[in-house]
Fold this protein.
Amino acid sequence: MNNPLQLSLVNFKKASYIIVEGKQKADYFFILRGGNVRISKELEVVEEEGGNLLAPGDFFGVVSTMSSHSHIETAQAVSDVSLISVHRDQFGLLIEKNAPVAMKIIQQFSKKMRYLDEALTRITLKSAASDDPSHLFKVAEYYARQSQYNQAFYAYHQYVKNVPGGENVQLARERIAKIQPYAKAVYLEVDNENFTRTYPKDNMIFSESQPGQELYIIQKGAVKITKIVNDNEVLLALLKPGDIFGEMSILEDKPRSASAIAYEDSVLLAVNKVNFSRMVSTQPQIITRLTQLLSERIWFIYKQLANTQLTNPLGRLYDALLIQLEKVRVPMNPGESYTFDFGPKELINLVGLTKSEGNAILHKLFENTKVKIADNKIHVTDVQEIEKQAGYFRKMEKIEKARKQGTMKAAT
Ligand code: CMP
């Protein structure tokens, strides 16, 4: 059989731009063979782990290429460089031929996801993430207070099991005895015999802060990914059939970064570590799908983080609307109208403004005659207007930043 994987080698001269942030049509990503490449972002939100200078063996452009979104970084050649370019459609073949590269990519992505998640929690909710298993007790207490006994029961059980010497173990035992008659938990433990699992609605699949041994592929139903932050349940994502979750613990040997709860009656396929390693060679399409999902999540969370760095609140509203349009891939045709699936209140929450700040700024947003409310949902009569406004504010931020840097330079 001849090798259908056709990778191209490309060379770039020192100082040339290989990819540019914001540019659409990211079809290829790159693996560096020789030379160095510098990665930069318009808004440096969080320090990149491992620095911004790439060396041979490193890769870039994967997030935007595999999620089919615009580039979220700029890559410039620091020396003459030689690269391998990989088309999105060839990712599956790359895994088959070179499983270690694929594993390196998803492992790095998982790490990236974790610190972007943490940064977003820190910035928007002003709270630190907790790796500590005693956090399980807080999760249980939260759900008990909400009378969501299935979830509470599961989390108390995990707390007692994973922190047997914990200061609240006695209390947790008492709570378990009390709520047991009202609680259902189908799988309190991992079932190593049966990999197809059925979870009735409102059952916890796993809790944040517990150890993880499996990842899951949703076959039927819907699963919500949540976190308890400052005694509130924060919804990170609502997942649907075909989606994969629970991979971060497996890839990094860390506790669960969030809880997974059946949002509807759901059927899941569980994959343990051993089966996962096998899948890399036997089912490359699943690894490709996992890479796509991780890329989409990273793209989205990076955009949300960049949004928090914009200083003008009206600019933030336009930018948040543009992110949503890009996320659901609305074509940016002139005169194309679109109704968002949320209203003004949710938009304010989305960008983390307080109610009073928000109301003042919403007023300004609706001065734009192309932005309206229909059935309590935000409606735009021309999607290009959102792109134009968001672009305008971004440009103003850049000018302002340059001006400040200029004044600072002049002052020193
Ligand atoms: P893991 O940490 O094992 O358990 C929680 C899972 O939730 C995690 O793996 C990811 O699969 C998923 N997850 C974490 N953060 C997010 C996010 N921001 N958006 C979507 N899914 C997430």
Notes: Residues 117, 212, 225, 236-237, 245-249, 256-258, 297, 301 surround adenosine-3',5'-cyclic-monophosphate (CB under 6 Å).
